[in-house]
């Protein structure tokens, strides 16, 4: 006799579980997207107030408190409803970690129900923002190439009349002399960091040597490679010779930045840009192995025949997955990015151009004295020297401008009254990179794809560019 009540209880539980499962299914409940002016929209940036209108909200708002019990779901983020009345709910679009415009789908959760309001229906437009990060107190003379440690501290080459310095910018933006205060260096033209060894590596063009600096004891400086003479001799590090370009940053557009830049690969090998002595148009890239052997990177030494279009000048280098990328150039010669891999050399982006700034893929992109480059997570970040611009390049050569006004609108080259730097922001796809006005840019390092630092020797500043 007791079995009948137990069976009833079990059946009740089973049916209640089925009801819960039905309630958790996503139901299509179409809604339209508006702004607070009741204009229908299909794109928005973070911080935008969004109104979602649907007849289904009218039914719920009549009897329920959606501000308390409802949630908006976008890309796995929960967004609280700020206001709900009649046929709408209102919320503020949050920040997403996106560096390109992307279509979003919007869901609504109320207790055990989930509604699909639109799939997809709203383009998220990342905000590109440029602010002055360091240098407003005249702490720099000519800030150049720079690198970053895992804590976020920057190490910046600051060129002087005779003995260059390395300055440290901490997380608060405070600037201090890190190394070189006793005249240990000449003209510095490249820098990178190996934190596993607690070392900074620099290319000293006056000494024609590559040196290391102990990060924990910056007065401890050692020669890694180079016998101190200008040359292109490969071999053991102590007897090898280099010929780094000694041009200061201010010579960017007169004779260019020739044979400069330094980067490390994942194993700790060092690569540097090098100029062939007593030539105008011959350059190469050299490798210093962890075992102390100096070699010329295969495919990097191009000997132009008659056509000056063949000249490729390294000014800044970076490394990724077996490829060395370098950027550089002079007006009316090739200006852009070269990729070296397995003994071959290809032009990834750029062409023979005058002072121009064009977005596009491959040779459709145009640069003006690109001075330095850094790689992070699928992208190359290039500081486009006299354009005063930060460019982003994919590994397939697609180039866009993230910030900057272009050569003839920079304070140095506009032929107009010098204007102060313009911090600002815009929305990718619908805004203008010229909202962020830099001058002559010379160094770049990417902390993430959302946070990039740029040195600007025209304004004597360090910029922070964010994309969110």
Give keywords.
468 residues; mainly beta; Immunoglobulin-like; Neuraminidase; 2 domains; 6-stranded mixed beta sheet; 5-stranded antiparallel beta sheet; 37 strands; disordered N terminus
- N-to-C terminal Cα separation, in Å? 67 Å
Largest sheet: number of strands, sense, barrel closure: 6 strands, mixed
Q: Can you tell me the overall shape?
A: elongated
- What is the typical, i.e. mean, pLDDT? 93
Number of strands: 37
Which superfamily, in CATH terms, is the homologous superfamily of the largest domain? TolB, C-terminal domain
The structural domain count equals 2
Percent helix range: under 10%
How much of the residues is beta strand, in percent?
Answer: 35-45%
| Sequence stretches where pLDDT stays below 50 over 5 or more residues | 1-22
The Rg value, from CA coordinates, equals 28 Å
DSSP helical segment count:
3
Per CATH, what is the topology of the largest domain?
A: Neuraminidase
Could you explain how this protein is built, in words?
This is NHL repeat-containing protein. InterPro entries: 6-blade_b-propeller_TolB-like (IPR011042). By secondary structure, the protein is mainly beta. The protein folds into two domains: 98 residues, Immunoglobulins (Immunoglobulin-like), CATH 2.60.40; 340 residues, TolB, C-terminal domain (Neuraminidase). It is 7% helix and 45% strand. Strands 1, 3, 5, 6, 9 and 10 form a six-stranded mixed β-sheet that branches. A five-stranded antiparallel β-sheet has the order 34-11-37-36-35, with no helix packed on it. It has a five-stranded antiparallel β-sheet with strand order 20-24-23-22-21, with no helix packed on it. A hairpin with a 2-residue loop joins β25 and β26. The longest helix is centred in the first third of the chain and has 22 residues. The chain is elongated. The termini are far apart.
